[in-house]
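Design job #97: recover the sequence.
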């Protein structure tokens, strides 16, 4: 039998290794920025074209490389940081020239220019697909410039898996922000397609946070610091009233390396217990300094997941640090020892009687209830029992019809439009009960509204039939650099929905009009939440711009609609829901309705 095991050619081995290190343009950005930091740079420029597909270039003023080092950094397993096994467990640096350069050089065209400080000439090196095309002396500035062009040019299958420029740029911004936050003492700039996105001077962490996320973060930051012999925690947390509905700016750094940890996030969230609105997420940028021997950073190829030797102690210290910060800044609730609780006046409370009574008007602020209880009408419910009164058997499974998009089967009662004569009942301001031929239909109000709004906005975007309402007082809105770039990229789609705004310079816009059917209140909050939801969709779903924006708009507005509805509004909601192409699911796949058939109701009373 002939031998079948053989060594791979270097170029192929490098391409396989690149699959782990270089997954998309943002992977290149991460490696090059970390290399610049390890080169002790005080100024770093990131230049990107076509979301990194055409060019990713990092220019730093670090220590530079000699002619030999410039060539060696593209060799596999070449490093300047590790010389023994023990060094693996004492790493405090981010990356090193040889860690990823071989992988990047295997799937791109790379131009390296470098010169050590004090040297007369530098080196220019060209690499294509792991092959050194040329190496020659060159007159270059001190430091290093690495330009990665035409990523995956020789692996077209990998290039085809890259997503839209908006998605890839979002990943690049994420990597840039993480490194910029970790090293506020280093100046950073970012240019995309020759437009400046960030210009961050060297400074303190608080200044860097404001520079990255915008001036509105000045008033919401609270310092957080805790020193113990085991580890230290420092950074900033957000005040509860500024919490967002989607996970936004939440960062953990361990020894200045960004990590993802649901375990530590739980430590922070538990410290906020009782302070946050439901389903809200606070801002935080927290740095943990701990001995490298107490952690394992090689759990994940990108090193964003680590293991702690004593994770319970780390959890406890992080929780205590956040709790202490909330208390120090008078954010946590505190007891008022000045008032005498024994003699505090009590509000009279009347218990409801007859199963239908409420307190008098004024007892509970915000509710206006008649002083004498009204009898609840039972009209509509009696019809539910008609089939039983008439001696009819419980209906068998009826004919089903398929919705146009194939999203499940609907009862044949849905084939005819619901009319305002149908009696609809509201339960706990969250659900609607509707009698149908086969039993009772239960509708989730918010989910139904989301489906209706989504289809409405998709139609508006496709037909470009827009109606707007001008604001009496135009709103000046300052965005973070990343959000500003996103809004400008989506300008056409925003206008097709009914938003009208103009640039006011820098990262500020003036909002002049909003969609006609949106209530004119808290326009700034609406726009910010819409952007947050759009970014959240980008991270989890593969959608085009229009569908993403329609989904984000529908989800945000549905959550803000008033839960209490009149009979006319309830019946209108049911009519609109069954006018949708896909009435039984939200765009995200959540059910809008369920049906409890008569035989199921029957069984409830027969059991036990």
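Job complete. Output follows.
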């Amino acid at each position: 039998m002939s031998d079948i095991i053989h060594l791979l050619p270097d170029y192929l081995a490098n391409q396989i290794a690149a699959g782990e290190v270089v997954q998309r343009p943002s992977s290149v950005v991460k490696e090059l920025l970390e290399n610049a930091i390890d080169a002790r740079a005080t100024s770093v420029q990131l230049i990107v074209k076509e979301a990194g597909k055409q060019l990713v270039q990092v220019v730093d003023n670090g220590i530079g490389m000699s002619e030999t080092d410039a060539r060696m950094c593209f060799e596999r397993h070449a490093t300047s940081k590790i010389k023994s096994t023990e060094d693996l467990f004492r790493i405090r640096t981010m990356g090193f020239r040889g860690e990823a350069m071989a992988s990047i050089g295997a799937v791109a065209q790379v131009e390296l220019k470098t010169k050590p400080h004090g040297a007369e000439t530098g080196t220019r090196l060209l690499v294509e697909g792991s092959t050194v095309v040329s190496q020659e002396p060159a007159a270059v500035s001190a430091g290093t410039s690495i330009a990665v062009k035409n990523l995956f040019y020789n692996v077209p299958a990998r290039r085809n898996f890259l997503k839209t420029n908006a998605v890839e740029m979002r990943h690049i911004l994420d990597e840039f922000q993480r490194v910029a936050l970790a090293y506020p003492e280093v100046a950073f700039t970012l240019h995309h397609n020759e437009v400046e996105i960030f210009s961050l001077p060297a400074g303190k962490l608080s200044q860097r946070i404001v520079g990255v996320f915008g001036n509105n973060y000045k008033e919401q930051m609270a310092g957080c610091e805790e020193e113990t012999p085991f580890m230290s925690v420092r950074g900033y947390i957000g005040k509860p009233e500024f919490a967002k509905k989607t996970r936004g700016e939440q960062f953990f750094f361990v020894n200045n390396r960004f990590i993802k940890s649901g375990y530590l996030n739980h430590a922070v969230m538990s410290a906020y217990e009782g302070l946050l609105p439901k389903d809200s997420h606070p801002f935080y940028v927290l740095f943990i300094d701990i001995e490298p021997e107490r952690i394992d950073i090689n759990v994940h190829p990108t090193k964003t997941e680590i293991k702690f030797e004593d994770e319970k102690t780390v959890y406890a210290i992080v929780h205590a640090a956040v709790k202490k910060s909330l208390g120090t800044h008078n954010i946590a609730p505190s007891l008022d020892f000045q008032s005498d609780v024994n003699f505090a006046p009590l509000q009279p409370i009347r218990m409801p009687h007859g199963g239908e009574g409420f307190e008098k008007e004024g007892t509970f602020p915000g509710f206006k209830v008649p002083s004498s209880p009204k009898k609840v009408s039972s009209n509509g419910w009696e019809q539910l029992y008609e089939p039983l009164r008439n001696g009819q058997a419980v209906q068998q499974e009826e004919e089903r019809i398929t919705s146009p998009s194939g999203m499940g089967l609907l009862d044949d009662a849905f084939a005819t439009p619901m009319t305002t004569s149908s009696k609809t009942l509201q339960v706990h301001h969250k659900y609607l009960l509707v009698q149908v031929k086969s039993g009772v239909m239960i509708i989730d109000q918010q989910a139904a509204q989301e489906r209706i709004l989504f289809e409405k906005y998709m139609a508006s975007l496709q037909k470009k039939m827009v109606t707007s309402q001008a604001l009496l007082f135009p709103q000046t809105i300052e965005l973070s650099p990343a959000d500003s770039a996103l809004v400008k990229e989506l300008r056409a789609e925003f206008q097709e929905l009914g938003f009208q705004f103009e640039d006011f310079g820098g990262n500020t816009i003036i909002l002049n009009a909003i969609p006609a059917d949106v209530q004119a209140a808290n326009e700034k909050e609406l726009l910010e939440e819409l952007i947050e939801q759009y970014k959240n969709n980008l991270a989890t779903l593969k959608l085009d711009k229009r569908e993403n924006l329609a989904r984000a708009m529908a989800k945000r507005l549905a959550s803000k609609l008033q839960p209490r509805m009149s009979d006319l509004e309830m019946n209108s909601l049911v009519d609109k829901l069954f006018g949708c192409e896909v009435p039984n699911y939200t765009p995200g796949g959540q059910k809008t309705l369920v049906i409890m058939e008569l035989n199921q109701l029957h069984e409830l009373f027969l059991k036990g």
